[in-house]
Amino acid sequence: MSAARLSPHPHQRPRATDYLIASKRCELRNLERFLQMGKLVLSIGNLIHELQRERGASNVFLGSGGRRFSEELVEMIDSSLRQQDAFEHELMEIQGELTQDPASTSLLNSLAAALHGLESLPAIRQQIRHQSISAEAAIDAYIERIRHLLTVVFEAAETVVDPTIAGMMVAMVNLMQGKEMAGQERAAGSLGFSRGHFDHALSQRIMHLIDAQERAFPVFERFADEEMLALWKQHNREDFWQELKYLRGLACSVGRYRELDTDLADQWFDLMTRRIDELKNIECLLEEHFHRRCIGRYTEARNALTHEQNLMESLDDSGHSPDPVLVVCSSENGGDTSQYRSDGVGRKLGRSVFDLVQQQALRLDQLSGELRIAREALDDRRTLEKAVLLLMKHQQISDDEAHKQLRKVAMDQGRKLTEVARSVLEMTDLLR
Amino acid sequence: MSAARLSPHPHQRPRATDYLIASKRCELRNLERFLQMGKLVLSIGNLIHELQRERGASNVFLGSGGRRFSEELVEMIDSSLRQQDAFEHELMEIQGELTQDPASTSLLNSLAAALHGLESLPAIRQQIRHQSISAEAAIDAYIERIRHLLTVVFEAAETVVDPTIAGMMVAMVNLMQGKEMAGQERAAGSLGFSRGHFDHALSQRIMHLIDAQERAFPVFERFADEEMLALWKQHNREDFWQELKYLRGLACSVGRYRELDTDLADQWFDLMTRRIDELKNIECLLEEHFHRRCIGRYTEARNALTHEQNLMESLDDSGHSPDPVLVVCSSENGGDTSQYRSDGVGRKLGRSVFDLVQQQALRLDQLSGELRIAREALDDRRTLEKAVLLLMKHQQISDDEAHKQLRKVAMDQGRKLTEVARSVLEMTDLLR
């Protein structure tokens, strides 16, 4: 009914009930959108997963002067390309929605950055194959592209308006973020172990990456549900971590220059790959839960809408105009309305519409409150991005370079990256 | 070009440049939307203005037992109805946009409340004509309807994403809010003067309304431009205020029960009407400026878009793929890329796209910062609305009753309304 009423209609006046319905419809459309968004996020997660493997292998390849992982790399690139196709397919599915949504200005821009990175990936792969690029430059090229893909997920998370769904998105982005830090640790470690030694910078970087993981995963835990946490406990089991800690110890014991057995490269790569694959499984389960939750919330909201449409149609049919009633609503507390108290039906009718509008207002307000909690969990990353953008502006540098500068300061001063970012922002406020 | 590219297209991949354009388009659509929104706000301002006059006159009419303003009321109702038609026309113009925008869930609901109030206005007018409603109940009925209309403007202001425009919206809503408090003061005063005396409650209410105006107008001043402030100074001239202060004194000197000359009712009504009409003129000028600003920003943004489209097309035509360049972007800081430094053209090309994306990210981030400042100015009202909704929920009362309770506590304790609201929220957090 309301769709018709809400399409512009010269001879007809806008009605309260239609706008109430339209408000509910608006919520429904949002939930529909996040069903699609979930698929996009999953495809990004899969693409990132393949790029991470490719990055790790590329660095074993380059670090070993092309002796290791030559064939593996070819297969990995194939599956990366398959996942890129899947990502671009999901993007095509949702882009009509995205370009129509006034809220997606930033999301669209982050997609532009991500796509721009993917467009130039073939050239990088060629250079790796010809060993005409340094291992560090190759790592950085992959890191930058994956960071742009993660930014898309962060921007997507910030457009979620349903708090229960927003919470899961926050768990998701932090899991993906932590997983990427683990992926970078795998790549850095692969480089060192395949070379047979770690210099100071490389050890520092690995320690920094461990610290970054210990920032991201707790946020994931805070927003994850029981089933997720069970998997998480399992992932954090003893035996596995003893081996990991041993190898981390070798990688981080700065100052030693004795050569390491280069076979450790395979052990390290296998171990870290097992870890990252487990994180990937948790990621997939999380996406499943996210999908289920979206469908659940959508069904809920649609039933509520149907219920209220029926209610309001029955009210329309009752033939009573809500007029006398609203007087009761607006003045029964202190006003002289004795002459209306008798009108039971009319009163019920006016109350209903009135209450529905107020219930909706109340619900929307509570939602926005819970939503704030979920959004605050994304602030660390916002702080970091703001600091990066300010450095870019003040020093006329690329965002990759700005990220590097922040990482370096954090390493040199042994402080958390977000702390450094925060003080950069404070400094810049003073410089303004 | 990009519109075509961005319509789903099986055989074609999403391109970075198209998403960059889409992000700019998204901004453009937002600015277009606020041009329409400005018209809607103007029509709401006009409707509120007429309802305020009607409310004032109705209370002289009821307060004088039907002796005064009988004809005037008929004319005023006619012009109210004309403005209601204009408002509903503007609403019809924009409703397609609104119902498509995922961000307007709350706005649509506030429109439902506003329309619901207007639908029952004829019944109220009938009761006033038959003097079958108390003056207090009549005032409350108008107050509630006008509050719902103002809520629409507040909700609209919160959907603005362009900071310069958001600032003007903040000035606008606070001007309208202050003007409404002045309108309520006119109505309350008209009631007292036409009765010939003010009881304690009525005097308290007037003092409270003066306090509320002194909260709203400073926020308007903070966000108003020079031309606006000049008009504002003119409005606050001496002679006018001496007369107003004298009458306010009579109205607020609680405890005196000597009868007042009922002719003061006309003097009060004329004076307050002059004041409110001046506020209305400032409101109209503000709307003009708002409209001009929207058009200005829109033209700016469209030119920027055209410029970048041309730039990117010329880059396409250059036939250079951006591939080698991004390597330069991503690794020139620390990576071994000497073999690419020669590729000047390609480098310029990749840099351009890359820089455009980063410029857009930087701009969007700065905007969101400035926007926060404007939004914070809307917080007082948010606090109030949250407190009202919590009272409604905890006591199962109407929002009108909740507003009354807050007003009463503020009056009894001589505290600001927002202070009371804030402590209500704190209390409720404890009760949870």
From TrEMBL, chains A, B:
Database matches in SMART domains: ANTAR (SM01012)
Pfam (any one): NIT
InterPro entries: ANTAR, CheY-like_superfamily, Nitrate/nitrite_sensing, WH-like_DNA-bd_sf
SUPFAM superfamilies xref list: CheY-like (SSF52172)
Annotated ranges, domain ANTAR: 364-425
Record's protein name: Transcriptional regulator
Organism: Marinobacter zhanjiangensis
